[in-house]
Amino acid sequence: MDKYPSYTRIILELKTSNGLSLNDLSQRIGISKMGILNQIQKLETRGMIERKIIKNKIGRPYFIFNLKDGSKSLLNNSSDAMLEDLLAYISEKGHGDIIESFLKDRYQTIRIEYSKKLYALDQDKKIEALVKLREDENYFPEHNKLNNQTDELLEYNCPIFRISNRFGIACSLETSLFSSVLDMDVKSTHRQVDGSGLCRFLISKRKDL
Question: What phi and psi values does residue 44 have, to the nearest 5 degrees?
Fold first, then answer.
């Protein structure tokens, strides 16, 4: 778990617990309580974490942190088992092309929405804006600048994992989406559906821009 950003590690710890204090999280993750608190405040702003105060007869009161119920479902891969059954049923009946058409239409809609928000930005700002969009959609992205021409986008959560796992076209559409809205060359090097702990994209800026 050490390879994950601290806020992702906080979420994963809370997801498998009944509530943890700052001290608990600090010890489990290995960063200071102040560092934990800074990340928690960001997650609270996004409405993903809630806190409750614990008052003891002896000693100072302290906070226990939990994921909100709605956030737990957001972190699951896709929605639920019923979706998995529906996808399997459609495929077994020989109508997988319906799902592929749906995915193509969906990504076209997303491309239009993303393009409006990235329009007229320079290359660096476009990447930053894309990362923010993915963060808002709970992909838990991490952006790293590898050199002047290459950036790295890591995504630690895949809300559409079950769909992508059965219909690989979703992954290729996502890579094409990034390339289109950024107007840059984007290559997928790691995918969660292939057993990786993350999805990794290399973004190559175009020198003539």
Answer: -65, -40
The HSE-up count of residue 10 (CA atoms within 13 Å, CB side) is: 30
**Residues 39-64: pLDDT tens digits?**
898 888 877 888 888 887 777 788 89
**Residues 95-149: pLDDT tens digits?**
889 989 999 999 999 999 999 999 999 999 999 999 999 988 888 888 999 999 9
- Compute the distance between CA of residue 42 and CA of residue 124 in angstroms, rounded to an integer: 23
- Chosen CATH of 6-75 out of 1.10.274.10, 1.10.10.10, 2.60.120.200, 1.10.4160.10: 1.10.10.10
Each domain of the chain, given as residue ranges in start order, spans: 6-75, 81-204
Smallest Cα–Cα separation from 36: which of 52, 48, 47, 20?
A: 20
| pTM recorded for the entire structure | 0.66
- The fold of 81-204 is Muramoyl-pentapeptide Carboxypeptidase; domain 2 (3.30.1380)
Strands (E), 29-184: 49-54, 62-67, 141-145, 150-155
